[in-house]
Every structure is written in structure tokens, then in C-alpha cells.
Amino acid sequence: METIKAYFALTKPRIIELLLVAAIPAMLQAQRGFEAVSSNFWLIVSTIFGGWMGAAAAHTFNNVVDYEIDQKMQRTRARPLVRKTISRRNAAIFAWIMLALSVFWLGVLANSWLAAFFVLLTNFFYVIVYTKFLKMRNSQNIVWGGLAGCMPAMVGWAVIRDNAPAGEPDRWWQAVVLFLIIFFWTPPHTWALAMKYKEDYRKAGVPMLPVVAGEVEVTRQIVWYTIGTVIVTFLIILRPRGSTW
């Protein structure tokens, strides 16, 4: 039972909850006008499960890559790999299995290979671009790394649109707006948390913005990104002239 709990902890379930919160509204918005939620219930549940596996893979890969950093930070010392509850090798195998299952599930059972592609893109961006490259090199790491956290909206939208009746407009511009809402929302809440744990990040050598900039500058950027988040939310009610996508 302890081993099962450890594997579950590798997936960072509290973060996955936030990702699912982003995916579900996107699916409801995408199906508006052609199907009731009740008639599409299985597809929504299936997508959530497939997306959960994809997110679990990304977070487990992150644990494997960040193993050395996690040993230096107080808030991450309880993670399974640091405590040696699970080996890095077994964690990596688990991550690959979850990723493969996610791609198969979304592509075959949810009938959306586009959604499966978005899951692969999310894992690539989060693990390779953010964790292995940006995180240790750039104070704006979370701005661009946060792009991975925007993908659930695209995954949910892709599944609904790929299963929509023929002739229904895709309205992909709305999915892009939902993507941008999460994009602008990610830095403010992450930097606020990083301000609390900035000494942790400093000891680990991670150049998060609160580590390399003063509190006034960090607060200023938090405010600007928050304003951006509010402005972008209003775009969801607009429609580009002549647009069918």
C-alpha cells in the first residue's frame, strides 16, 4: 500500500486537479450548441481519465529529472524519489507506461489523435523545454514553461470537436482564448508561491523571478499578468469576423 501511495504521489495529484479544472470547462464550451452534457458524459469522463494519465506521466518525468534539485529544497524532500521509496529507474518506467496508455486511450477510445498529440507535446515541453532547459537558466522560466499547463484546454477541445457531428464549426479561436487565460494566470500564482519559498529555490540554484528580483518588481509583474488574465477572459465572448474556426 505504501508503494502504491508513493507512485500516486509521483503524479502530483493536487496539480492534476487544477489541470482537470481547465479541461472540463473547455469541453463544455466546445460542445455547446450541438449536444447536451448528459449525452456526452462517457466521452468527458474518458477524456479526463486519458488526460490524467498524460499529466501523471509528465509529473513523474519531472520528479525523475528534478531528483537532485528536490534533495536540496525543504518543501520537496518528502517526495518519493528523495525518500528512496521508489527508484528513479522504476519511476521512469512508470512515466513511459502512463504516457503510452494516455496516447492510446485518447487516440483510440476517445477517438482523438489530435488530443493524443497535444498530450505528447505537453510532455515534451514540460519535461525537455521547461524542466531540463528553462528552469535552471531563465528567471522567466515559468512564463514559457507554463505553456504546458495550458494544454488541457486544447486536449478537451480536440476530443469534443473530433467527435462532433459533421458540419459543426470548430470555433478553435475559443480554445485559444482558454489557452491564453491559463497562460496569463500561471505566472502570478506561481511567483506568489515562489516568494514564500525563494530561499529554497536559491539554495537549489533555481533562478525563479523572486530569487533574482526584488519583491517590488515581482509584485509589479504579478499585477500586470493578473490584469492580462482579466482582459483575456473577455475575448471568449468575441468572434473574429468571418471566422469559422
Explain what the structure shows.
The protein has 245 residues and is mainly α. It has helices spanning 2-10, 13-30, 41-65, 67-72, 88-109, 113-134, 141-145, 147-162, 172-196, 198-204, 209-212, 215-233. The longest helix is centred in the first third of the chain and has 25 residues, at 41-65. The chain is flat.
Low-confidence stretches: none
Radius of gyration: 19 Å
What does the average pLDDT come to?
A: 87
Q: State the major sheet.
A: none
Return the structural class.
mainly alpha
| Distance N to C terminus | 48 Å
Helix content: over 70%
Strand-residue fraction? under 5%
Annotation keywords:
245 residues, mainly alpha, flat
